[in-house]
Amino acid sequence: MSSELLDALVALEKQKGISRDVIVDAIEAALVTAYKRNFNQAQNVRVDLNLDKGTMKVYSRKDVVEETEDTRLQISLEDAQKINPAYELEDIVEEEVTPRDFGRIAAQTAKQVVTQRVREAERGLIYEEYVDREDDIVNGIIERLDARNLYVGLGKVEAVLPIGEQIPTESFKPHDRIKVYITKVEKTSRGPQVFVSRTHPGLLRRLFELEVPEIFDGTVEIKSIAREAGDRSKISVHSNNEEVDPVGSCVGGRGARVQSISNELSGEKIDIVEWDEDPVIFVANALSPSKVLDVQVKEEERSTTVVVPDYQLSLAIGKRGQNARLAAKLTGWKIDIKSETDARELGIYPPEHQDQEAIENSSEDPYFDEELSTEKEIIEPIDLYMDAED
């Protein structure tokens, strides 16, 4: 082996990040193939590559047996012990069979195989790098596009953004920078294939983790996400610290945090609501920005009937039913919305056992004040009592 080949191995190790052992194994396998092909040899052989001395040798390998059936693969115990008395049955006898002109033939024949093995090793490294980044957000550059897919350069690999994972209202051109969410990494004959998305709820989750320190450090937790990409999303949050407002943390000063995320998603509207383990409160919160008068729960059917003021029925349902649909996805409960008038006609409102204070406190009315509301409930009965006395 020439010093040039040894230098090439060192260069490959540095440039491609592939260990020398992987490259040597590829070369040895290639040389075995070259030996069998060029010298019509069917026996088992082993190639020994000595990097320090710069030599290569070919050894035939034969199993020690009582009686030989194929002299190319086996050797009798008697013949083996003539070579070395220490040989026993089932041992392997190795004998050097390096052809005189093997170096020249091997270099020509093994070149393609070595190149392929090195390429496979490089692909393996890329696969291992990106498979660990599944469910993560990455920055990329649009490299090209066709009728169905966008192809995003991530550095060492080109990712595919299928049309079904693209936000309908967005359009890109080559060299545009873009944030994408890695959904899947596969091994293929052409190397690792990375699939990314702009519509996956995980993208919204990762963007909030990047933008909101309280989510990143675990103080505020994202409980669920419902998303119709490019149009509107709902996200429920919960604080693990009573002194931290989960909704306020996500919204940020003057809405800066949520606005930054909305801008990244081409103006997608984002509703942030507080999660609660009580489905009555959680469903009421999820229907924000509409006001909810009552939530009746059927545990066995995992469904709810929600009563809203007549003038807010369309707001609660949303355009094309979007608000109600997203609220149902967010909470995991079926939601049937009734106007106050319809609910009274059906005899389901007001309920006899419903905790109205819990529902009213869930309202996101900016003028709602819990303390004043409680005071009003106490004062009004007293005034009526006094009128009766007069």
Automatic annotation (TrEMBL):
Entries under Pfam families matching the protein: KH_NusA_1st, KH_NusA_2nd, NusA_N, S1
Primary location: cytoplasm
Biased composition (Acidic residues): 362-371
Location within or outside the cell: Cytoplasm
Family annotation (SMART domains): KH, S1
Region described as Disordered: 351-371
SUPFAM superfamilies the record matches: Nucleic acid-binding proteins, Prokaryotic type KH domain (KH-domain type II), Transcription factor NusA, N-terminal domain
Gene Ontology terms: biological process: DNA-templated transcription termination; transcription antitermination
Residues making up the signal peptide according to the UniProt record: none
Coiled-coil features, chain-numbered ranges: none
Family membership noted in the UniProt record: Belongs to the NusA family.
Function statement: Participates in both transcription termination and antitermination.
Subunit structure: Monomer. Binds directly to the core enzyme of the DNA-dependent RNA polymerase and to nascent RNA.
Name of this protein: Transcription termination/antitermination protein NusA
Annotated source species: Filibacter tadaridae
